[in-house]
Design brief:
- The protein contains 16 helices and 23 strands.
- It is an alpha+beta fold.
- The strands form seven sheets. Strands 17-18-16-15-21-22-23 form a seven-stranded mixed sheet, sandwiched between helices. Strands 3-2-1-5-14-13 form a six-stranded mixed sheet. The chain has a two-stranded antiparallel ribbon with strand order 4-7.
- Strand 21, helix 13 and strand 22 form a beta-alpha-beta unit.
- Helix 1 packs across helix 6, helix 9 crosses helix 14 and helix 12 crosses helix 13.
- The radius of gyration is 22 Å and the shape is globular.
- The protein starts with a strand and ends in a 6-residue tail after the last helix.
- Bound molecules: SN-glycerol-3-phosphate (G3P).
- InterPro entries: ATPase_NBD (IPR043129), Carb_kinase_FGGY (IPR000577), Carb_kinase_FGGY_CS (IPR018483), FGGY_C (IPR018485), FGGY_N (IPR018484).
- Belongs to the FGGY kinase family.
- Keywords: ATP-binding, Kinase, Nucleotide-binding, Transferase.
- This is ATP:glycerol 3-phosphotransferase.
- It comes from Tenebrionibacter intestinalis.
C-alpha cells in the first residue's frame, strides 16, 4: 500500500491532537496542543475559533510531516460536539468566538421555548431535550447579536456551523461547506426520521436554511486540502464525526449489545441502535454515525459529575493537591480497605443532576453516616457513585425495546482504577472491557476514513480495533449489590428532595 496512513484530528474542548494511524490500526505519530476556554460572564463559555484552527493546523502539519505527506491517504476529524460558530462566507472571518457546548447564554431563549410548550415537538423531531447545550439556540443567539444577522444569513452571507464544518471550510480553502450527520444531529435542527434540516425546527429557532452546511455521511469524500500553510494540497478529508460517537465506533463499530461509557469529569453513556425511537424521554436519541451505507442511531445519557464528584470529595477532605499517580493509588487502596461503605452514599448532583433524572434543582448529598464512618467510606462512596450513576442510565436504556447489553466498553482516565472496573462489572452483572488505546475518538474517525477509502468491510475493520482488557462480573456479588443499589436509589431521591419542597 503506497499510502498506508490516515491522519486523524481529534479536536476536543481542552486540547487538540493529531495521530497518524497505519494500515494495522497502530498509532505511529502524534502531536497535541492545549486549547483555551474563556468565561467572560457567569455561565458563558467561549473559544477563539481562529486559535482553534491554528492549533488544529499545527498538530496536523506536525504529524503529516513526521509521517511523510506522500504516505498519507486521507484526513479524518473527530470533534467536540454542539459548539457553534458563525462566519462570513466571503473570506471566512468568524462573527464572534465559538460558543462552547458548555455555554449557557442561550438559557433564556430555551426557557421561552419551554414556556411556549415546544419541548415535546422538539424532542419528538430531533430526539433532544430543550437545553442551551445544543447548537440551535446558540446559533440563534449569534444571529440576534450580529447586525442584521437574520437577513444576512437568509441571503447566504453568513455561515453557521458546528466545529467539523468550521474546520472543513478552512482545510479546503473555503470550497466545502459541509458537516456530518452526527454533528448535524446535535444541533437540534435535524429531523431524526428524515435526516434532513427540519423546516419546523428552522422556523422555531429562527435559523435560515441558507446559512447551514450540506449534511453528508460521516464516512464521505468531504473535500481536499487547499491553501493551508505547510500542508500539501489535495489530501482528501474522508471522515468527520462527533467525538463521543467516534469513541463508540472505535470500541466495536457499534455492534449490538456493546454500550460505551467514557469516564471523565462527566460521563457519556451511549448505546448503538438500528432505528431512532424517542419513547425514552429520560435520554437523548441521536444519530451515532452514517458510514456511507447506513445510519446507526444512538441512545445517550450524559452525567455531569462522575470524575468531578471524586475530585470534589478529595478537595473537601483536604487532599486536593495530590498528583494523579497519588490519587490513583489512594482511590484503589482506600475502597479495598473496607468491605463496604456500611450504608454511606454520596450523590454528586453538584450543579443538579443529568441523565436520567434531569433536575437542575437537585443538590449533592452525603447520607448514611455513622460514628464509625471515615475517609475510606467517603472515598469509596464517591467511587461507587460513578458506577451507580452509569447503572442508572443503563437502567433507563433497558426500557428501549431494541436495547441489549452484552459488554460495557469503557475509556477515559478513571478507568485506570482497577477496583472501580471490577465494582462496575459486579454492579451491572456484565463484563466491563477497557480499551487499550487512549486515542479512541481519533481512531474511530480514522476507521471511518478507511471505510470511505473502500476495499475494507466491517470484519476487516474489526481486526484493526485495539484490544480490550476485560473484567468479568462476580454474579454472587452482583446479587448482593442489588440491595445496595436500592439504597443508592433512595439516596438519589433525597438529593432531589429540594426540587419538590
Ligand atoms: O471535548 P470533549 O472530549 O470533552 O467532548 C465534548 C463533547 O463532545 C460535548 O458534547
Amino acid at each position: 500500500m503506497d499510502k498506508p496512513l490516515i491522519v486523524a484530528l481529534d479536536e476536543g474542548t481542552s486540547n487538540v491532537k493529531a495521530v497518524a494511524i497505519d494500515a494495522r490500526g497502530e498509532v505511529v505519530a502524534k502531536a497535541s496542543l492545549p486549547l483555551r476556554l474563556a468565561t467572560p460572564k457567569p455561565g458563558w463559555v467561549e473559544q477563539d475559533g481562529e486559535a482553534l484552527l491554528a492549533a488544529s493546523f499545527t498538530v496536523l502539519r506536525q504529524v503529516i510531516n513526521e509521517a511523510g505527506a506522500r504516505h498519507v491517504a486521507a484526513l479524518a476529524v473527530s470533534n467536540q460536539r454542539e459548539t457553534a460558530i458563525g462566519w462570513l462566507r466571503d473570506g471566512g472571518r468568524p462573527l464572534s468566538p465559538a460558543l462552547s457546548w458548555q455555554c449557557s447564554r442561550a438559557a433564556p431563549f430555551c426557557e421561552q421555548l419551554r414556556r411556549d410548550r415546544q419541548n415535546e415537538i422538539i424532542r419528538s423531531t430531533t430526539g433532544l431535550p430543550v437545553a442551551p447545550l445544543f447548537s440551535a439556540p446558540k446559533m440563534r443567539w449569534l444571529l440576534d447579536n450580529t447586525p442584521q444577522g437574520q437577513a444576512r444569513a437568509a441571503r447566504g452571507e453568513i455561515c453557521l456551523g458546528t466545529i467539523d464544518a468550521w474546520l472543513l471550510w478552512h482545510l479546503t480553502g473555503g470550497e466545502q461547506f459541509r458537516c456530518d450527520y452526527s454533528n448535524a444531529a446535535r444541533t437540534q435542527l435535524v429531523n431524526l426520521h428524515t435526516l434532513e434540516w427540519d423546516d419546523a425546527m428552522l422556523a422555531l429557532f429562527g435559523i435560515p436554511r441558507a446559512a447551514l452546511p450540506e449534511i453528508c455521511p460521516s464516512a464521505w469524500r468531504f473535500g481536499v486540502t487547499k491553501g493551508v500553510d505547510g500542508i500539501a494540497d489535495g489530501i482528501p478529508v474522508l471522515a468527520m464525526v462527533g467525538d463521543s460517537h467516534a469513541a463508540l465506533y472505535g470500541h466495536g463499530l457499534g455492534r449490538a449489545g456493546g454500550i460505551k461509557a467514557t469516564y471523565g469529569t462527566g460521563t457519556s453513556v451511549m448505546a448503538p441502535l438500528p432505528t431512532p425511537d424517542m419513547r425514552i424521554t429520560q435520554l437523548a436519541t441521536t444519530l451515532a454515525w452514517h458510514d456511507g451505507a447506513r445510519a446507526v442511531y444512538g441512545l445517550e445519557g450524559n452525567i455531569p459529575h462522575t470524575g468531578d464528584g471524586l475530585a470534589w470529595m478529595l478537595q473537601a477532605m483536604g487532599h486536593g493537591t495530590l498528583d494523579e499517580a497519588q490519587r490513583l493509588e489512594w482511590f484503589q487502596r482506600l475502597p479495598q480497605s473496607i468491605a463496604s461503605t456500611d450504608g454511606v452514599y454520596f450523590v454528586p448532583a453538584l450543579t443538579g443532576s443529568g441523565a436520567p433524572w434531569w433536575d437542575d434543582q437537585a443538590r449533592g448529598i452525603i447520607c448514611g453516616l455513622s460514628r464509625g464512618s471515615g475517609p475510606a467510606h467517603l472515598v469509596r462512596a464517591a467511587l461507587e457513585a460513578i458506577a451507580y450513576q452509569i447503572a442508572d442510565v443503563i437502567e433507563a436504556m433497558k426500557a428501549h425495546p431494541e436495547f441489549q447489553l452484552n459488554t460495557l466498553m469503557v475509556d477515559g482516565g478513571p478507568t485506570r482504577n482497577r477496583w472501580l472496573m471490577q465494582f462496575q462489572a459486579d454492579l451491572l452483572g456484565c463484563p466491563v472491557a477497557r480499551s487499550a488505546t487512549a486515542e479512541l475518538s481519533a481512531l474511530g474517525a480514522g476507521l471511518l476514513a478507511r471505510k470511505a477509502l473502500g476495499g475494507l468491510n466491517d470484519d476487516d475493520l474489526l481486526a484493526l480495533l485495539p484490544d480490550h482488557e476485560t473484567w468479568q462480573p462476580d454474579m454472587a456479588r452482583h446479587a448482593r449489590l442489588q440491595r445496595d443499589y436500592l439504597g443508592w436509589r433512595d439516596a438519589v431521591a433525597r438529593a432531589h428532595w429540594k426540587a419538590s419542597h
